[in-house]
């Protein structure tokens, strides 16, 4: 019997020893596993905190003009831009020991387990803010063991690699507050129409209660449930030392005004412009589509709301609502290329195709200033003359004969100057110049002006038969307006990521590509379309809109069978307008042919309203201004009935005096008296004095 007892004792000791050994091995394995998990978490490093957030687009004055999102309103703000009331309320109700634990609140977990056992069901949660943040960032909200294990692992990684402030900031920017509002900034705007930093204690404690159950505790769903939840939060804040008991009682009784509207515009402003901005983010900044749409970017653009609204107004006013005519418009600051307004079509909802940047259309005579700048480089001057007459051009290389026509088949049937040819848009003069310079000269010059579309090396190129984009033409004319400096159409000045880090900032760089003297001479010639002194066999092409203009402008109109253009500028703004049918249908109605000019003139006036009236200033050197007879380009005498002050590149000004009117001196005074009724611009432009 004693032997059996002794044997039993030894057996018990054996089992105990085995249990202890196994337990130690288990504990060692658990420790190794735990250390392995920590090491693996450390090796993996910081998990990315990026979540889908709305990308915001701002005008040049900081006004929000639109956003890109997937139906979820998300805006990231720093912890310093969140009301301390909201921070304290959230920590108090969700995780009072947040700043003391390392991701897991073991005391709270034990309490939750005990409560669940007593109730025989899950009645109390124990997830910390870090655990909830891990779940929101990386996991689905299913209740599986796999999800719980992964949640714990991501919690460890977050705590190992980020500060408590970073985690709390991320949590407050990702939790769901109902009604498509993700994060406290979106929720604050939606429920109270204010920024998160401006929330008072009443508003903050109301919002802090929503995430537990947005469908239950949202004040828009049930104010009674929301107030009950708010009262609990206020009590926890008293218990945790955040507020006084009297304060809690006072706040609980205060009324709340709920807005319940997302303050960002549902219909975005300047939709064609915003599409162009997104395209620039992709092709120029090389951002992917997801980052652009859901990266939480803040994109600061060049759009001027006043000028954009003016452009939209003029298009709506001048183009008949029943017409199928489309319009493309780009307005730029010539000093830096900043695009201030853009019209890509008459109705974005019906057609998002952007005619300002995507459509390639024949520019007609608006290409001539580029041709004539090339002519200035080759010795031409505003007083250079050629015959304007019906002409058929024959070619020795087997190329087919070419017979260009002037508008309404009108010709001077005599010599006209380059200045007048440009003002009345004489096509014969242009083709002769083009052929004289060589058909490749205009192609090379167009590249110099930043035009990238391919151009055909043909005689008709001088009349704008090769397609271009509206934005390219606006940019090309900017070189005249700014004295010959290269600019590029710019839509974006700065881009910030969701953390406020600047990932792109525009740096203004200028490079002179045109001779300033020649650029100014071209500008002064381009004022001629508004100068009746240059009327000849035809009126100057800007005659129909002169009365609408109140400040100095330079510009050029253009037309083909299917396209109508007007491009012009002041020292502050350059604008290109195209009007036509998408399908290339001929423009037959008189009104259709006037849309571009009327839109341009009235847009420029409204866009520049309130800005100082500026004349085009000649460069300090390189140009000489003299009075000439606009009919022949020679130096004017007192006997010439019309004298026009004209600038020339220094050394190319005429030296021969006009002798055509020496025998008509008696008639001269009467004609001079008739010319005392001068156009609007004579008082504004120094060369007309």
TrEMBL record:
Q: Does the keyword Metal-binding apply?
A: no
Q: Which InterPro entries match?
A: Beta-lactam/transpept-like (IPR012338), Glyco_trans_51 (IPR001264), Glycosyltr_51/Transpeptidase (IPR050396), Lysozyme-like_dom_sf (IPR023346), PBP_transglycosylase (IPR036950), PCN-bd_Tpept (IPR001460)
Keyword Transmembrane helix set for record? yes
Q: Extract the Pfam families matched here.
A: Transgly, Transpeptidase
Bilayer-crossing residues are: 20-41
Keywords per UniProt: Carboxypeptidase, Cell membrane, Cell shape, Cell wall biogenesis/degradation, Glycosyltransferase, Hydrolase, Membrane, Multifunctional enzyme, Peptidoglycan synthesis, Protease, Transferase, Transmembrane, Transmembrane helix
Note the superkingdom of the native organism: Bacteria
Penicillin-binding protein transpeptidase domain residues: 329-604
Localization of this protein? Cell membrane
The segment(s) forming the Glycosyl transferase family domain are 62-237
Task: Give the catalytic activity.
Answer: Preferential cleavage: (Ac)2-L-Lys-D-Ala-|-D-Ala. Also transpeptidation of peptidyl-alanyl moieties that are N-acyl substituents of D-alanine; [GlcNAc-(1->4)-Mur2Ac(oyl-L-Ala-gamma-D-Glu-L-Lys-D-Ala-D-Ala)](n)-di-trans,octa-cis-undecaprenyl diphosphate + beta-D-GlcNAc-(1->4)-Mur2Ac(oyl-L-Ala-gamma-D-Glu-L-Lys-D-Ala-D-Ala)-di-trans,octa-cis-undecaprenyl diphosphate = [GlcNAc-(1->4)-Mur2Ac(oyl-L-Ala-gamma-D-Glu-L-Lys-D-Ala-D-Ala)](n+1)-di-trans,octa-cis-undecaprenyl diphosphate + di-trans,octa-cis-undecaprenyl diphosphate + H(+)
Q: What is this protein called?
A: Penicillin-binding protein 2D
Underlying gene: pbpG
């Amino acid at each position: 019997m004693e032997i059996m007892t002794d044997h039993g004792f030894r057996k018990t000791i054996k089992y105990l020893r085995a249990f202890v050994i196994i337990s130690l091995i288990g504990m060692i394995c658990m420790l190794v596993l735990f250390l392995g998990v920590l090491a693996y978490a450390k090796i993996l490093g910081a998990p990315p905190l990026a979540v889908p957030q709305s990308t915001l687009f701002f005008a040049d004055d900081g006004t929000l003009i639109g956003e890109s999102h997937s139906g979820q309103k998300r805006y990231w703000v720093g912890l310093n831009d969140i009301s301390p009331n909201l921070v304290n309320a959230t920590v108090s109700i969700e995780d009072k020991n947040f700043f003391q634990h390392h991701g897991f609140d073991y005391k709270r977990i034990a309490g939750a387990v005990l409560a669940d056992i007593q109730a025989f069901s899950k009645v109390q949660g124990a997830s910390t803010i870090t655990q909830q943040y891990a779940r929101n960032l990386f996991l689905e909200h299913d209740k599986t063991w796999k999800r719980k294990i992964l949640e714990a692992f991501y919690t460890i990684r977050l705590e190992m690699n980020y500060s408590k402030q970073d985690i709390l900031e991320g949590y407050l920017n990702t939790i769901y507050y109902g009604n498509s509002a993700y994060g406290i900034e979106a929720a604050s705007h939606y429920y109270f129409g204010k920024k998160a930093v401006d929330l008072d204690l009443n508003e903050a404690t109301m919002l802090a209660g929503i995430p537990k159950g947005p469908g239950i505790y949202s004040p828009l769903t049930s104010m009674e449930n929301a107030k009950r939840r708010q009262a609990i939060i206020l009590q926890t804040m008293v218990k945790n030392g955040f507020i006084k008991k009297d304060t809690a009682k006072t706040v609980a009784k205060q009324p709340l005004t709920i807005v319940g509207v997302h303050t960002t515009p549902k219909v975005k402003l300047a939709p064609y412009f915003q599409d162009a901005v997104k395209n620039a983010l992709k092709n120029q900044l090389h951002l992917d589509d997801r980052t652009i749409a859901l990266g939480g970017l803040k994109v600061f653009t060049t759009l001027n709301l006043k000028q954009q609204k003016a452009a939209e107004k003029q298009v709506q006013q001048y183009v008949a609502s029943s017409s199928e005519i489309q319009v493309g418009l780009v307005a730029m600051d010539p000093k830096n290329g900043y695009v201030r307004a853009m019209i890509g079509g008459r109705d974005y909802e019906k057609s998002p195709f952007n005619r300002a940047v995507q459509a390639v259309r024949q520019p007609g005579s608006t290409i001539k200033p580029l041709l004539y700048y090339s002519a200035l480089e080759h010795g031409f001057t505003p007083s250079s003359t050629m015959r304007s007459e019906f002409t058929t051009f024959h070619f020795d290389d087997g190329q087919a004969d070419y017979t260009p026509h002037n508008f309404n088949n009108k010709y001077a049937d005599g010599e006209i100057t380059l200045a007048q040819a440009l003002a009345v848009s004489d096509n014969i003069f242009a083709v002769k110049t083009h052929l004289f310079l060589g058909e490749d000269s205009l192609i090379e010059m167009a590249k110099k002006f930043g035009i990238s579309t391919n151009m055909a090396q043909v005689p008709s190129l001088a009349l704008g038969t090769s397609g271009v984009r509206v934005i390219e033409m606006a940019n090309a004319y900017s070189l005249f307006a700014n004295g010959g400096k290269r600019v590029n159409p710019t839509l974006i000045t700065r881009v910030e990521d969701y953390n406020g880090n600047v990932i792109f900032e525009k740096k203004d760089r200028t490079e002179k590509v045109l001779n300033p003297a020649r650029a100014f001479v071209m500008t002064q010639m381009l004022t001629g379309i508004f100068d009746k002194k240059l009327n000849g066999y035809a009126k100057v092409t800007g005659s129909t809109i002169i009365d609408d203009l109140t400040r100095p402008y330079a510009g050029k109109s253009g037309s083909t069978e299917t396209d109508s253009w007007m491009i012009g500028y002041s020292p502050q703004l350059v604008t290109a307008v195209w009007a036509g049918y998408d399908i290339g249908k001929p423009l037959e109605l008189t009104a259709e042919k006037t849309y571009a000019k009327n839109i341009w003139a009235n847009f420029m006036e409204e866009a520049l309203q309130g800005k100082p009236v500026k004349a085009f200033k000649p460069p300090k050197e390189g140009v000489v201004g003299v009075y000439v007879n606009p009919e022949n380009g020679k130096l004017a005498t007192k006997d010439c009935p019309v004298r026009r002050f004209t600038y020339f590149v220094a050394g190319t000004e005429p030296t021969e005096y006009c002798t055509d009117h020496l025998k008509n001196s008696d008639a001269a005074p009467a004609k001079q008296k008739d010319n005392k009724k001068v156009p609007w611009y004579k008082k504004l432009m120094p060369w007309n004095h």
